[in-house]
Amino acid sequence: AVSQYYSDNLRNEVLKGMDERRRQGWLTGHAPFGYKNVSNKDEPIIPHPENSKTLARLFELFASGTHTFKSLADQMENEGFIYQPSQPKFHRRALSSILNNRFYIGELNHKGQVFQAKHRLVVDPLHFEAVQAILAGRNKRTGNPDIMLSGCTLRCAFCGYGIAGERIKRKLVS
User: Fold this and answer.
1) pLDDT(149) > 70
2) CA dist 129 to 18, 51, 58, 89, 91, Å?
3) Per-residue DSSP letters for 1-43?
4) In the chain, fewer beta carbons within 10 Å around the N or the C end?
């Protein structure tokens, strides 16, 4: 019973400490790409010397509006920027995570609460907002390109609904 109380109390104290740290404007876990954790009480998260340049270039290129995730990954690879030593090329999930992370403009989001962060910014807030506008305007694939008319490309002149194509495979009954 005593060890259970100790365990529960320790959990509560750790959670209180993490909440206080967030209120102070500091992240409570591993630093995201472009930053690194250091053992400095005054500034525990600092820009990574190399990855911060990669991060700034990534936002700059995507904010231009001329890149897809694939072309952005190819461009970063051509310019010599790497994601991780074990995986040098940026993949789609990593790019999406990085480009949508509000930490880069000084916001800490936790369970619906937003805290103002104290770390040094690497990404220009104007570039970040331009990237968000581009990502919000992206068209989502609505169909399968292998199936003709599966993306509602035609509309009925009478009712206005989209005409969708489908492929039907039937087994021949002998």
Assistant:
1) no
2) 29, 21, 14, 25, 22
3) -HHHHHHHHHHHHHHHHHHHHHHTT--SS---TTEEE-S-SS-
4) C
